């Protein structure tokens, strides 16, 4: 779907002399990625509006997306599977925020500390789609580590200020990334066992 639309849009740009034919693949790839991301974001916002948790969702995405991009973990093999899994993750987040009792939110500091410590040990997690060399591993490790520290600090500050819901939202971003990282490690180890 996005592939056809991106090809059509890129051909239109070439036809209108806005880009050169030899740059077709670069622009087509960029347009396709833009369309996919736009579809993801619009879907997330619709879910947030349906649950009446749009501000909470925006805070979660601000915390989660940079952490996800720098920590790695499981990646779906197809754009459609990626879309459905991402929407499922957002839906799960919204359900947890909407339906979790306040008593569970009280434990956000403990959960975020445990998630952070494990993430520190395992990130970045490579995937088949995104193998990393030594320089990239060092770069992503330090960047992910910095983000983990910032988010953990925010959880503790929000906890001290008794802003339990905000603390819980940031905790969920750390916990979701931990689950994705562990899924990526599990998939990688299963594949190496099959090949070995």
TrEMBL record:
A GO term for molecular function: peptidase activity
A GO CC term attached to the entry: membrane
Pfam families to which the protein is assigned, alphabetical: AgrB (PF04647)
GO biological process: proteolysis; quorum sensing
Residues passing through the membrane, by range: 41-67, 79-99, 105-123, 144-162, 168-187
InterPro entries associated with the record: AgrB
Keyword set, alphabetical order: Cell membrane, Hydrolase, Membrane, Protease, Quorum sensing, Transmembrane, Transmembrane helix
UniProt cross-references to SMART domains, sorted A to Z: AgrB
Name used for this protein in its record: Accessory gene regulator B
Phylogenetic placement of the source organism: Bacteria, Bacillati, Bacillota, Clostridia, Lachnospirales
């Amino acid at each position: 779907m996005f592939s056809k639309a991106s090809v059509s849009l890129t051909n239109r740009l070439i036809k209108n002399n806005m880009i050169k034919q030899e740059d077709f693949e670069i622009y087509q790839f960029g347009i396709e990625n833009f369309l996919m991301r736009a579809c993801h974001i619009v879907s997330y916002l619709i879910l947030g509006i349906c649950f009446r948790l749009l501000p909470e969702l925006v805070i979660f995405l601000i915390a989660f997306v940079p952490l996800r991009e720098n920590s790695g973990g499981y990646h779906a093999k197809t754009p459609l599977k990626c879309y459905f899994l991402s929407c499922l993750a957002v839906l799960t987040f919204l359900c947890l925020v909407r339906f979790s009792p306040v008593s569970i939110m009280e434990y956000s500091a403990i959960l975020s500390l445990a998630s952070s410590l494990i993430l520190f040990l395992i990130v970045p997690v490579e995937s088949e789609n995104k193998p990393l060399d030594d320089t990239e591993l060092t770069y992503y490790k330090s960047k992910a580590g910095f983000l983990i520290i910032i988010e953990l600090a925010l959880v503790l500050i929000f906890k001290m200020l008794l802003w339990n819901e905000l603390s819980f939202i940031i905790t969920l971003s750390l916990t979701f990334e931990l689950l994705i990282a562990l899924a990526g490690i599990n998939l990688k180890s299963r594949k190496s066992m099959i090949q070995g």
